[in-house]
Design a protein that fits this description.
single chain; mainly alpha; elongated
């Protein structure tokens, strides 16, 4: 693959991963908020799911950047 194709591919993979992460996060937060439990019991689940989802997204971004740098 040439340099420009790799950059375009990585850019679109990042966009798709970002969209999936935000959609998944919104679904998880929505389903947690539907719980009849008070907010103080829901807060840890909201924080943990947010950190997990966006942590995995950040890890994927860094992996893609590493791959892009080593391929170019």
């Amino acid at each position: 693959m040439n340099k420009e194709t790799i950059r375009t591919t990585v850019k679109w993979i990042k966009r798709v991963l970002g969209f999936i992460a935000i959609t998944l996060w919104m679904y998880v937060i929505y389903s947690i908020s539907k719980s009849p439990a008070p907010f103080m019991e829901q807060a840890p689940y909201c924080m943990a799911s947010t950190m997990l989802i966006f942590g995995l997204m950040s890890m994927s971004y860094k992996g893609l950047e590493y791959w892009e740098k080593n391929q170019a």
